Each structure stands twice: as C-alpha cells, then as structure tokens.
Amino acid sequence: DHSLKIWDIRCPDAQRNFDHKAPVNDVVIHPNQGELISCDQNGSIKLWDLGESSCTHELVPEEDVPIRSVTVANDGSSLVAANNKGNCYVWKMAHTRDFTDLQPITKFAAHN
C-alpha cells in the first residue's frame, strides 16, 4: 500500500503510518533511534524523523532506478544505499541537535 508502518507488538493497530508513495524495499532504524531510513521502488531514500512524524530528507540518486537496500553505520556517521543497477552511494551523516545533514561522499559500482 506504499506506506511505512510502525507497530507496537502489544497493540493491534499501527502506531504510525508514513506515506511513501511507492513500494518500500528496505528500512533501517538509525542508531540514535530517532530516525528511520527507507528506500523504495521509485529510487527514493527517505529519512523520517520519529519525533516530528515527518520526512526530513528525500534523496534520489538515479531517477526511476529502484533502491534495494539501505544501511547506517553503527555510529550513525554514514548512510549507504544500493540500487538495481549495482551502484552504491555513500553519504556522511552529520547530526546537530535538531537536524541531520547529509553530504555525498562517493558512488561506486558494486558489480557489472
């Protein structure tokens, strides 16, 4: 249904429901546990602020190329995503008290 849902397994209903606008392929929680990072079939990577219940960033590395996987470093310092063409993207994640800044670091081909 093109949404990202957060469930508390003790309750029957979803606690939060975020509209992703495309089928979601992967989701990871940031080590600070205040943000979710998701990716979708349209090629978007979205950062969701759980405190504000909103999308704070949307990245589209390549138009119309699905992003298959996202991950965040254990210390929260970087975000890595891979798409269907075998390209990997790396961003530096700099956190301030109220904001996450994403700076592109590199792109590389994971396979031919």
Automatic annotation (TrEMBL):
GO CC aspect terms: TORC1 complex; TORC2 complex
Listed Pfam families: WD40 (PF00400)
PANTHER family: G BETA-LIKE PROTEIN GBL, TARGET OF RAPAMYCIN COMPLEX SUBUNIT LST8
Keyword Glycoprotein carried by entry: no
Family that this chain belongs to: Belongs to the WD repeat LST8 family.
Repeat region (WD), residues: 17-58
Protein name: TOR complex subunit lst8
Organism name: Podila minutissima
GO terms, biological process: regulation of actin cytoskeleton organization; TOR signaling
Gene expressing this chain: LST8_1
Cross-referenced Gene3D superfamilies: YVTN repeat-like/Quinoprotein amine dehydrogenase (2.130.10.10)
Alphabetic keyword roster: Repeat, WD repeat
SUPFAM superfamilies: WD40 repeat-like
